[in-house]
Amino acid sequence: METSVACYARGAFPVRNVSSQHSSSLVSPASISSSFNSKALRTSSLFGESLRMVPKSSLRVLKSKNSSSVPKCAIGDSLEEFLTKATPDKKLITLLISMGEALRTIGFKVRTASCGGTACVNSFGDEQLAVDMLADKLLFEALTYSHVCKYACSEEVPELQDMGGPAEGGFSVAFDPLDGSSIVDTNFTVGTIFGVWPGDKLTGITGRDQVAAAMGIYGPRTTYVLAVKGFPGTHEFLLLDEGKWQHVKETTEIGEGKLFSPGNLRATFDNPDYSKLIDYYVKEKYTLRYTGGMVPDVNQIIVKEKGIFTNVISPTTKAKLRLLFEVAPLGLLVENAGGFSSDGHQSVLDKVIVNLDDRTQVAYGSKNEIIRFEETLYGSSRLKGAVPVGAAA
Question: In what residue span(s) does the Fructose-1-6-bisphosphatase class I N-terminal domain sit (predicted)?
Fold first, then answer.
């Protein structure tokens, strides 16, 4: 029987003993990278400890009453109701619901992680696993159990893994399992990022080829922020006490507003143009809202519907952010929300992903902020010719 995944309510899962036979192969990221395969997940499944399998027919997917026009999403819709309105592709719906179940479980595991020093772990019987590696396994398993994912890779396992789904009509997924894992111990907000591409390729593609992108955000609230290509807006779903995702916000426009999140400030030491841009924000009395986590900093632009996030390189500070796992998926989320993205010259969605580990500088924000970013760093902007709008020379 074709199946998909559903989560036990409230995320309160019974902890079962996990054989010590498997613990040695789960502790080391290197050992996971070299030996990872989907068959191992089926036999020693952490995802299976937290989730139960149910027939796909039990997932409530509602048909649109008016198929002749784009259905209108509604605040209060469930995730399943929203997805049925957002896309006719049942396989994509299945994948995004499966990923939602993984995000729910990760949120619970992050909240219950025990942190000492810089290491945060979860206990499974006699086995301990760092939360970023745990998130990585849960997401790979969700994709395996969805039966619609052909290939997947992550920042932790940066090689293509065969998830067993179809190449024709299926999807390939790239994800950052726990962006900001180094600040879990300080109890800052962290999150998951993923992008979904059609077919069986994750190189030779662009971010604009994505059919969906999302963030899972683990903070005071657990939210699932989702964009579906061709469907207006970027949509926030809140995890309720009973374990359901409820649609709580739609963002269709990123307006102007003096809020900035400047990443990689060390680059201002030997990148005078970036230093000039930061000086402009300070001089113009922008509000600083920077956490050190890319997920919460970009999410606030979508939620507040204003602002700018920057992460700029310099001669001594090379690009850190990965195009496939972080930058392109967030680019779709921001641009679907009515914002803009830039690597200094073009939208990050137009950058070709040549290698899985390609890296880039980036800015996300409102139109005028991206114009200012491009003009200050490179003298002109594709969005507004050569007319300056910001920092004086």
Answer: 70-250
